[in-house]
Amino acid sequence: MRYAWKNLLFFIAYATIIFSLYHILDWKHIDIPFQPLSVIGIAVAFYIGFKNSQSYDRFWEGRKIWGGIVNYSRTWANNVLSFVENDRAAQITLIYRHIAWINALRIQLRQPNSFSIKENRAVERMFDKHGERNPVCNGFDILLDPKEVEDLERRKNVATHLIKNQGQHLKKLLEEGKITEFDKQVFHNNLEEMYNLQGKCERIKNTPFPRQYAYFSTVFTWIFVLLLPFGLLNVFESQLVELNKGSNWWHMVLMIFFSVLISWIFTTMEKIGSNSEDPFEGRINDVPMTALCKTIEIDLRDMLNEENLPEKTKPIQNILY
Fold it and tell me: Average pLDDT of each block of 10 consecutive residues along the chain (321 residues)?
């Protein structure tokens, strides 16, 4: 209802006006044959289906990328614990810095850009309430050294520099003889894959869905729903009046109901595609990065044999962010 209430009110008023003009004022000339309208409806349905398919592909690719981040995070922690055996402080630093990286990446991806979709105020209020517009480095004091946090606050891409700092730390461990050259190569393979996963996320985030598909999908849908009541006049006039002889009110109510229902279905299908275009905005149907980050943090801190682990992220008003 947050998304649809304005459209529903408009469809009810619009259909009521048209049907009133037709039946009460006897404007019989405004009806149009339903056959050409059905052709338009089929074309619009195909177009919306294509748009929704491509939009879902963007969402599903984003979810697969974050599945890769979960897997490589566990691999990273396992390598740290296996290769850096005699330095507990280094183990904690490398794993905590990785936890900082996934959270930095999450917050960066959720920052709005110039082509982010703007919803109506009722929806935006919910996003403002549960969204993430906080600075990227907020809360890193418990994960990183204060000097490193101070340096990161001046960076444009915090997640990129966290991976760089991991590489610099590995170089220091090699010089101290705490890891071998082979160990360092395995670690750098992990870091390379993390950069790849981050780059894939940024590609989806910074490449908007082709506007020609998004724009004309909306245009064609509204052309169809605005013509729809005129076509239903002819359908109900020729078929339902015969079943309700002497009474036009019942089939007039049915015409309004079906006009609103069909219009709502088409506009909702179009809206679903629009809301799947950008899977990292922190909206209702986006990739639940907060929950995934918390899952990774729990797993990695458990691998460090820590106690008092945080709880898994729970849905807020039935929405998992």
Answer: 86 91 81 87 93 92 96 96 92 96 93 72 64 70 90 92 96 94 95 97 91 88 93 71 58 85 93 86 87 95 93 85 84
Query: What does pTM read for this prediction?
Result: 0.85
- For residue 316, the cross-strand partners are 319
* Phi–psi pair at 316, nearest 5 degrees: -105, 115
> Please, where are the H alpha helices in the chain?
5-23, 34-83, 88-109, 121-130, 146-152, 158-175, 181-206, 211-243, 249-275, 289-303
Q: Contact 259/15 with Cβ under 8 angstroms?
A: yes
Dihedral sign (CA 312, 313, 319, 321): negative
Distances (CA, A) of 254 to 5, 10, 229, 246: 20, 17, 11, 16
Query: Using CA atoms, how far apart are residues 34 and 193, in angstroms rounded to an integer?
Result: 56
Q: Token pair of 280, please?
A: 């990292």
- Contacts by residues 137-142 (CB-CB < 8 Å, ≥ 24 positions apart): 137/104, 138/107, 139/103, 140/100, 140/103, 140/104
Contacts of range 131-138, beta carbons closer than 8 Å, 24 or more positions apart: 131/282, 132/106, 132/107, 132/282, 132/290, 134/107, 135/107, 136/104, 136/107, 136/108, 137/104, 138/107
Cα separation, 137 vs 18, in Å, equals 56
